[in-house]
Amino acid sequence: MSDKFQNTGLSYFQHTLADSFTCVGRGLHSGLKVVMTVMPAEAETGYLFVRRDVHGSKNEIPARWYMVTDTHLSTTISNSMGVRVSTIEHLLAALHSCGVDNALIVLDAPEVPIMDGSSKPFVDIIKRLGTVQQKAERRAVLIRQTVSVSESNRSASLEPSPVPWIDMEIDFDSEIIGRQKLSLPLTQGIFDKEIANARTFGFEEQVETLKELGFAQGSSLCNAILISDSKIVNMEGLRHRDEFVRHKFLDAVGDLALAGGYIIGQFSGRCSGHHLNNLLLRELMTNEQSRMYMTLRQAEAFWKARLVHAVNS
Ligand SMILES: [Zn+2]
Predict the structure, then answer these.
(1) Residues near ligand 1 ion, CB 5 Å cutoff
(2) Distance 284 CA to ligand 1 centre (A)
(3) What are 27-73's pLDDT values in tens digits?
(4) Contact between 216 and 29 (Cβ < 8 Å)
(5) Would you kindly state where each structural domain of the chain is located, as residue ranges?
(6) CATH number of 13-312
(7) Tens of pLDDT along 187-215?
(8) Burial class (CB in 10 A: 0-12, 13-18, 19+), 311
């Protein structure tokens, strides 16, 4: 009998990293230099950030949807003492899509290093190190009823689906970006091949204002796509023709990794970003009819029974 969730190839069991890795870089918004070590962690730990530059017992911040305190330009989590970590989404997207359920992330600054602006540097190193299976079964959050949130022309929803799926659409008033759509199942292979290397982006005319406000202090052409009027400033151009929607897809994977298990359902985002992604998780978690916590194995059995029933009726 298979011990894998057939629709994604994911094992029924939790995994952690086979070994630790360290990244040195700067935070995109703070501009601060940061040394970050990602280490194996025990089953049921989830993703746990530890600020080693903060002394005392309150330097731990679990990466969960209810710890999110700021979603302006990136996702920030904070604990009850106000100790925070920002721009966690690209690292979490990499860990989650590589099948790492449990990791201890120790850093000496309040922001994850931006690396090249995508998840690829993290994915490459995780794949090289490998993962190890743990005894506990993998957790799933099964979507039973559609939940949605919206604000002006932006919306995000989660609806029942046996296959984890992301459907993203963006519409920017920019000749370079315009309207872009991407709809793909969320498997490790697809994330690696289609999504992981899509970089974050910004507009040249906004950079000065952002910097004056204390954001984008660490941004450069090495870690973001810069758009000026109708052209890309980066010499190397784009990695994909529609790299922008791919990056929004990546952000959604990272933001949804705060659910505390694999979401078995379809996410649809229309111009959604960190704010709506987190609002959607809050709506999902407070609306008990809309979801069920179970193991991945139980989620598979749930959908098998439902599909057989649909065929027979
Ligand atoms: Zn991003």
Answers:
(1) 200, 251
(2) 22
(3) 998 999 999 999 999 999 999 999 999 987 799 999 999 999 999 99
(4) yes
(5) 13-312
(6) 3.30.1700.10
(7) 878 999 999 999 999 999 888 888 888 88
(8) exposed
